[in-house]
């Protein structure tokens, strides 16, 4: 509640109380009392009559004709209008008018305040919004953007790895050690050295430079065929060889095949081994070009049926 409203209400209450006191106050009798002290003038040795009583005595002397003065005086007093009552009524009306004006002013004040409040709220909200906009920093957006990019890259990587399950065909290269069995610890070090990372299907995967596209994957060779890696036991195992394979169709097949051939040759040199194609022939330059064209010219069976 506004301070002006409270002050107006207090003033109205005070005015009403004063008006009620004036209404119920008994008018003072102007007639001289017999018990009042009579004052004597020292010079004239006559009683001093109050001025309001003196005026009444003059009126009585002018109107008196017969000894029936008391009755005529009573009649005249009855016929005289009650000025005190009229003054009280006027004061009551003025009090009511002032109270009404105070109420009207308080209502007008409340109306003005209520009309201004929505505007003030709108301005405060807009000011707060502008402050928030000003505080936005590009660095925060860049941090969130980098997190989002990392998440998207990770999602693309998972999608590519899962695409191995639905691949229509593969081109494989086998890496066999010539003289001795390859230890699991050596195998792990070599794979990590040439940028392969352990992931889905218990394979080591190689991605492109920005890490957004799967190029090829690697499994280990056993007597029964190929098998996934178990990192908990790999350091104590012996590995016969490695199998690199490229899933077809592939969105960047030329880059994927060349990268697979290059890394297979580096690993073979590292472990003193040899690279064989998927038919167990040593990979010569002629066979490399043959399988390269096979990968590039591969068309999806879905596209052929379409």
Automatic annotation (TrEMBL):
Bilayer-spanning residue ranges: 6-24
Biological process terms in GO annotation: division septum assembly
Gene3D superfamilies for this protein: ZipA, C-terminal FtsZ-binding domain
Taxonomic superkingdom: Bacteria
ZipA C-terminal FtsZ-binding domain: residues covered: 167-295
Topology in the lipid bilayer: Single-pass type I membrane protein
GO CC, alphabetical: cell division site; plasma membrane
Annotated compartments: Cell inner membrane
InterPro entries for this protein: Cell_div_ZipA (IPR011919), ZipA_FtsZ-bd_C (IPR007449), ZipA_FtsZ-bd_C_sf (IPR036765)
Pfam families reported for this sequence: ZipA_C (PF04354)
Family of the protein in this entry: Belongs to the ZipA family.
Function: Essential cell division protein that stabilizes the FtsZ protofilaments by cross-linking them and that serves as a cytoplasmic membrane anchor for the Z ring. Also required for the recruitment to the septal ring of downstream cell division proteins.
Name of the molecule in the record: Cell division protein ZipA
Protein's organism: Acinetobacter equi
């Amino acid at each position: 509640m506004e301070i002006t409203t409270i002050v107006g209400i207090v003033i109205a209450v005070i005015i009403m109380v004063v008006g009620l006191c004036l209404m119920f106050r008994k008018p003072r009798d102007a007639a001289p009392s017999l018990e009042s002290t009579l004052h004597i003038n020292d010079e004239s040795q006559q009683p001093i009559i109050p001025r309001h009583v003196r005026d009444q005595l003059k009126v009585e002397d002018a109107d008196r004709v017969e000894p029936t003065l008391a009755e005529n005086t009573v009649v005249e007093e009855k016929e005289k209008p009650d000025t005190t009552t009229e003054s009280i009524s006027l004061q009551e009306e003025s009090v009511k008018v002032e109270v009404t004006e105070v109420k009207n002013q308080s209502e007008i004040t409340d109306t003005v305040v209520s009309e201004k409040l929505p505007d003030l709220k709108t301005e405060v909200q807009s000011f707060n919004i502008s402050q928030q906009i000003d505080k936005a920093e590009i660095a925060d957006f860049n941090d969130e953007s980098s997190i989002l990019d990392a998440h998207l890259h990770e999602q693309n990587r998972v999608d590519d790895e899962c695409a191995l399950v639905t691949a229509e065909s593969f081109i494989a290269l086998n890496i066999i050690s010539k003289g001795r069995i390859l230890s699991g610890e050596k195998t792990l070090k070599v794979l990590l050295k040439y940028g392969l990372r352990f992931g889905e299907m218990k394979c080591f995967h190689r991605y492109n430079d920005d890490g957004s596209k799967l190029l090829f994957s690697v499994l280990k060779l056993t007597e029964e065929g190929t098998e996934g890696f178990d990192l908990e036991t790999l350091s104590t195992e012996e590995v016969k060889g490695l199998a690199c394979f490229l899933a077809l169709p592939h969105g960047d097949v030329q880059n994927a095949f060349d990268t697979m051939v290059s890394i297979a040759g580096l690993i073979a040199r590292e472990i003193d081994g040899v690279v064989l194609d998927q038919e167990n022939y040593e990979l010569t330059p002629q066979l490399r070009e043959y399988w390269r064209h096979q990968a590039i010219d591969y068309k999806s069976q879905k596209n052929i049926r379409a």
